[in-house]
Specification:
By secondary structure, the chain is of the alpha/beta class. It folds into two domains: 189 residues, Rossmann fold (3-Layer(aba) Sandwich); 147 residues, Rossmann fold (3-Layer(aba) Sandwich), CATH 3.40.50. Helix content is 34%, strand content 23%. It is built from eleven helices and 16 strands. The protein has a seven-stranded mixed β-sheet with strand order 3-2-1-4-5-15-16, with helices on both faces. Strand 4, helix 5 and strand 5 form a beta-alpha-beta unit. The longest helix is centred in the C-terminal third of the chain and has 19 residues. The chain is globular and about 55 Å long.
Length: 354
């Protein structure tokens, strides 16, 4: 069990709101059950992402996970969120923020958001909304982000990307401002297996001047970075024109590694392009949840745009779920009492427990 969860949330003076996904991902209930066993003062806002024509076996698994989550929390609400509108537009991020905004936060001291079973299009807007509440001095005062990390599961669950790329709700950054029209645009796509088609469409959408692909290293599979580079070799050599010196390596299991790397790139580019229209970094987190969390932290701190293709469904062999080892928990204390006020930039602590 995560020692932080056990030691911190057992305090009877803490009232906690748990926010997580009630989906088919086998990691859906892991953080929730740990939290529920540590404290009885927990309410739950459970997001059920609804996509068109889901596979029946995934629907059944989602229902099982939803029931497990419901049993864990006496006070809970399962909130269905339609990811796509009737016209096919992506509306999930805006809808889930509106739903959470209706929640009564009175007396809540901590929000624990588990992104393990939430998509980027849902989790990023939720976390930004909660960060902005804290910055305005509203409850809650403490914001925790958890991930049940298992790289093999991230690879086994393959999103089927929609046709229309766009920005994640709340993460346009300064990309649409006229004064940034001439900015030197650097695209930082997170490479992942079975995402080639999605990343090609995202490249066309972003239209960057330069591309720095992000590869996982170190990783649980030491050859994963080389394998991904080989998968995208045609793009490296032609469309994206990637110099091997411009490949970004980030630890697969440490969100702070990618977070710091993105900030360093931003710091290096700003003075160089200041006289030539400025610099703009565009992120596309499409792989592991851990690395996506690092990208999220950088996007929040520097107001960076996040280009993304929402999934219309998922391809996965659910029979493989039981074969993978138990995930380990990663915790980021994003906002709250642990920081001096006014708080410094988001250099958060993280914990992993195997």
């Amino acid at each position: 069990m995560c020692s932080f969860v056990k030691d911190y949330f057992k305090d009877p003076n803490r009232r906690v709101l748990f926010v997580g996904g009630a989906g088919f991902d086998p990691r859906s209930a892991l953080v929730a059950t740990e939290l529920a066993s540590a404290s009885k003062n927990v309410e739950a806002f459970l997001v059920k992402e609804v996509r068109p024509n889901p596979a029946q076996d995934l629907v059944q698994r989602a229902e099982t996970n939803s029931n497990t989550l419901a049993v864990s929390f006496a006070h809970h609400e399962v909130v269905p969120i339609e990811i796509f509108g009737p016209d096919g537009a992506v509306v999930g991020g805006r809808s889930v923020v509106a739903a959470l905004n209706r929640w009564d936060f009175s007396g809540i001291t901590d929000v624990a958001i588990d992104i393990s079973a939430l998509s980027v299009g849902t989790s990023f807007p939720l976390i930004k909304y909660l960060v902005e509440r804290v910055e305005r001095g509203n409850e809650p005062m403490n914001l925790h982000v958890f991930v049940a990390h298992n790289a093999a599961l991230d690879h086994a669950i393959v999103p089927v990307a929609s046709d229309v790329p766009g920005h994640v709700h709340g993460f346009r950054g300064a990309s649409t401002l006229n004064q940034n029209a001439e900015a030197a645009k650097l695209w930082l796509p997170q490479l992942a297996r079975e995402r080639r088609g999605a990343l090609i469409r995202l490249h066309d959408f972003v239209a960057p001047h330069d591309t720095c692909p992000i590869l996982p290293f170190p990783a649980s599979n030491p050859r994963l970075g080389d394998e991904l580079a080989n998968d995208f070799l045609a793009e490296f050599e032609s469309t994206w024109s990637v110099d091997t010196r411009n490949i970004v390596y980030a630890a697969e299991d440490d969100p702070l590694d990618l977070y710091r790397t993105i900030l360093k790139l931003d710091d290096l580019r700003r003075p160089v392009f200041e006289e030539f229209g400025g610099s703009m970094l565009v992120l596309s987190p499409v792989g592991s949840k851990i690395m996506a969390l690092g990208a999220l932290m950088a996007a929040l701190e520097r107001d960076l745009p996040v280009a993304y293709l929402e999934a219309i469904g998922y391809n996965c062999d659910a029979a493989q779920f039981a074969e993978h080892p138990r995930p380990f928990l990663v915790h980021i204390w994003l906002e709250g009492d642990v920081y001096p006020q006014p708080r410094p930039p988001l250099k958060s602590e993280w914990k992993s427990v195997r």
